[in-house]
Amino acid sequence: MATTKQPETPVTEANGELDAGSVLVRAFSELRDELLSTLLFVLGNREDAQDAAQDAFVKCWGARDQVPGVQNLRAWIFRVSFNTAKDMQRSAWKRRMKSLRG
Question: What is the reported pTM?
Answer without folding.
Answer: 0.75
